[in-house]
Amino acid sequence: MTSERTGILGGRFDPVHLGHIATAALARRELALDRVLLLPSGPSPHRAALARAADTDRLEMTRLTAETVSWLDVEDAEIRSAEPSYTSVTLGKLAEAGHQPTRLFFIVGADAFADIATWHDYPAVFDRAHFAVVSRPGHPVDALRRRLPTLATRMRVATPVHAPALAIHLLDAETPAISSTAIRVRLQAGQSVDDLVPEPVAAYISTHGLYRAPSGE
């Protein structure tokens, strides 16, 4: 069983960008994490208006990103699963693989966390890991105490001091306002995204012709 303090940052990563790395770095710094796992989500059942990358490409771009940062790694449990992915189930699988819940920190934006009551296996999901909630533009973590009063007693300002009891850690700091959707829009318009994604990801997108507008447009 691992004793490492491990963060988990999930997302479609379509594509992974510098904002994701900044969020992971913030959580690592504020919570004294040993490493952060990037968790690409499973296939989306919804048709997208903009071109999207295949799951194999999303996974490879995530791996290329992890190779650029010593404390990043990739967890592919969700993207390789044929079943719908739920945070609670994924955290349970990590526990079975030897991760202690009190050493796991699930990193999520305040905008997504505001709807936590709609998540699968709520509120038991809080027994699976700590939650590290990061402010997002227009969604400060301070507002969560008012929006989710039943969870207020679990919330605490993020600190690197070890917390034996599972908690909701609030990280009130700015991270770059970058979105994968905006990146896909720029790429479809033939614009550069070199300032928004890691260098190897930009090279991969260019080499494989990802996110281009369909021919004829």
Structure at a glance:
The protein is an alpha/beta fold. It has helices at residues 18-31, 55-66, 87-96, 110-113, 144-147, 180-188, 199-208, and strands at 6-11, 35-40, 72-74, 104-109, 130-134, 155-157, 168-171. The chain has a single domain (6-101, 111-133, 150-163, 177-208), classed as HUPs (Rossmann fold, 3-Layer(aba) Sandwich).
Distance between the termini: 53 Å
Q: What do we call the CATH homologous superfamily?
A: HUPs
Q: What string gives the helices and strands in order?
A: EHEHEHEHEHEEHH
Number of helices, counting only DSSP H or I runs of 4 residues or more: 7
Proportion of helical residues: 25-40%
Low-pLDDT parts are none
Oligomer: single chain
Instruction: Let me know the largest β-sheet.
Output: 7 strands, parallel
Please indicate the percent range of residues in DSSP E strands (runs of 2 or more): 15-25%
Architecture, according to CATH?
Answer: 3-Layer(aba) Sandwich
